Amino acid sequence: METTVQATGHHHVICWKSAFAGLAVALVTFFALVALGAAFGGIGLSEDTTIRKVSFFTAAALVLSVFLSAFAGSYYSVRVARMKIDLTGIVQGTLVGSLMLLLVMGQTLSVAGSLLKATGALVGGVTAGAGAAAMDPAVQDVFEDAAGDLKLKSEPSVVAKGVATRLLRGDQESAKNYLAYQASLTPAQADAKLQEAKAKADAAMAKAREAAAKALKATGWTIFLLLVTGLLASSLGGLLAVKANERYFIDTSHEEVLRARRLKI
C-alpha cells in the first residue's frame, strides 16, 4: 500500500533539485523582506528615536524575514517535489530551511565573532587585551584629559595610550615613570596624576564591559531565535505543502482541479 501512495507523489525522501529551487526562493524572499524592512526602518527614524528602539525593530524585522522566507522556500520545494507524505514534507522543508539558515547565519556569526573578540579584549587581563582596551575612546579621553594641563614631550594621544596600556596590564610603576619622564614630573606628582586618572579609567572600562556584555547577550538570543524560527517555519511550510499536494499538484490543470472538486462533493 505504501508503494501505491509513493507512486502518486515523490519516490525519494529527499529531492535535492527541489531543495535548491526552494533555497533560491527562500533567499530571494529573505533579501526582499530585509530590503523592505530597511526601507520602513529608514522612514521610521526620527530625532527622538533611540538605539534601543532601532535594535528592537531590526531584530523583529530580521526574525519575521527569516520566518516568511523559510516558509516560502520550504513550501515551494515540497510542492514542486510532489510529496504527499507528512513526514517526508517536513524533512524536505527542514532541509531547505537549514540550507537557508547556514547562508544567512554566516554574516550574522561573523558580526558575533567580532563582538566576542572585542568583549575578550575588554574582559581579559593579558597584554594583548590591555592594549586593545587602551585604544577604547572612553579610556583614551580619560587619560588625555588628565594630561591636558601638562607639557608633554610627545603627543597627548601617544602619552595617553602609553600610560593606559601600562596601567591596564598592571604595571603601575612603569606607567608612573613613563608619565614622569614625558611631563617632567617627580615620581610623587606622576603617581598622584595616575591615581586620579586610573579611578576614572576604571569607571569607563566598567561601562564598556557592561555595554559589551549586553550587546553579546542580545546577539546570542537573536541568533537562537532566528534558528528556532527558521526551522519551525520551514517544517510548517513543508507540512502545509504536503496537505496542498493531497488535493492537487502544482502542475495540475484547471480542468483536473475542477473535476477533483466535483468528485469530492
Number of helices: 10
> How many strands appear in the DSSP assignment?
0
Radius of gyration: 30 Å
Which class do the helix and strand fractions yield?
mainly alpha
Identify the overall geometry. Answer: rod-shaped
Q: Determine the fraction of residues in helical runs and give it as a percent range.
A: over 70%
Contiguous low-pLDDT stretches (5 residues minimum) are 1-9, 121-134
End-to-end C-alpha gap: 25 Å
Major pleated sheet? none
Give the averaged pLDDT, no decimals.
76
Amount of beta strand:
under 5%
| Domains, number | 2
Series of secondary-structure elements, N-terminal to C-terminal: HHHHHHHHHH
Describe the structure.
This protein is mainly α. The protein folds into 2 domains: 2-123 and 221-264, no CATH class; 127-208. The chain has helices spanning 2-7, 16-44, 51-81, 86-123, 127-134, 137-146, 156-168, 172-183, 187-247, 254-264. Helix 4 packs antiparallel against helix 9. The chain is rod-shaped, with a radius of gyration of 30 Å. It starts with a helix and ends with a helix.
